[in-house]
TrEMBL record:
Pfam families: DegV. This is Fatty acid-binding protein DegV. GO terms for molecular function: lipid binding. Gene3D superfamilies: 3.30.1180.10, 3.40.50.10170. Keywords: Lipid-binding. It comes from Mycobacterium kyorinense. Coiled coil: none annotated.
């Protein structure tokens, strides 16, 4: 058997990639109109990010426990590595750690200190090591090493979702400034923080592309481009990165998903980067 990797639906791993590497997934939740919708399981309105009354919730202890117990059984005792979105952005890691403690030493929880495909890249690093026959310690080490190689940036077009989200560190001082402000955000120590204030969306996106290229430099890198109701913008970012970083594989392009979309709003564009070793 082999170590089994579990993640959550924030990771935005395409279905074919999850299936190829046998990565399990637990859903995050959207609470809307008295309904509890499971991301990736239940049908969620495409425009959920436009509904001010919708909120998000972490994976439940029951869901985590069920997923980990099944993964443990399927691993034949080799163990489970659970990779989840940043503890600074969700309560999922806390619930995962409590659940893992109840199940013994066979489950290791890794805080990706990020979200979206930055979490996905960490899960993939763990799954590749598991597929190569790595034991529980080796798979957990591979995940932890991937955390340190990840960088995330996002351009947000709407400020109202940010105001409601409460997920933006140090936001109070600048969220109320000029309406034309298009903030470039980055992931720092697991938190979403302001990287730069830019006056136009096009300049913000150009600045994001510049920062991604600076992070990659002469290295190889895995790249993902995400969007919220902005597929054309995502395609343009992916094309620009392909032109400027020809040594990298083409970017994975996916939507950001309903849970994350609720926090950043329509039009958002994000780039997740895992720099090669």
């Amino acid at each position: 058997m082999a170590v089994v990797v579990v993640t959550d639906s924030s990771a935005r791993l395409p279905d074919d990639v999850r299936q190829k590497w046998a990565i399990r997934q637990v859903p995050l939740h959207i609470l809307f109109d008295d309904a509890d919708l499971r991301d990736g399981v239940d049908e969620v309105p495409d425009d959920i990010h436009l509904h001010g009354g919708a909120t998000t919730a972490a994976a439940t202890p029951t869901e985590l426990s069920d997923a980990y117990r099944q993964a443990l059984a399927d691993s034949g005792g080799d163990g489970v590595v659970a990779v989840h979105l940043s503890a600074a952005l969700s309560g999922t890691v806390g619930a995962a750690e409590s659940t893992a403690a109840d199940l013994g030493d066979g489950v290791r929880v890794v805080d990706s200190r990020s979200t979206a495909m930055n979490t996905g890249f960490v899960a993939l690093a763990a799954a590749r090591t598991a597929a190569d026959g790595g034991d529980l310690d080796a798979v957990a080490r591979a995940a932890a090493a991937a955390v340190r190689r990840n960088h995330g940036f996002i351009v947000v077009h709407r400020l109202d979702n940010l105001r409601r989200s409460g997920r933006i560190g140090g936001a109070a001082a600048w969220l109320g400034t000029a309406l034309s402000l298009k903030p470039l955000l980055r992931i720092d120590e697991g938190k979403l923080v302001l990287a730069q204030r830019v006056r136009t969306a096009s300049k913000a996106v150009a600045t994001m592309i510049d920062r991604v290229c600076a992070v990659v430099g002469e290295h190889s890198a895995a790249i993902a481009v995400h969007h919220v109701a902005n597929p054309d913008g995502a395609a343009e970012v992916a094309a620009a990165l392909a032109e400027r970083l020809p040594s990298c594989e083409p970017a994975i392009v996916t939507d950001l998903g309903p849970v994350l979309a609720l926090h950043v709003g329509a039009g958002a564009l994000a780039v997740c980067v895992e720099v090669g070793e």
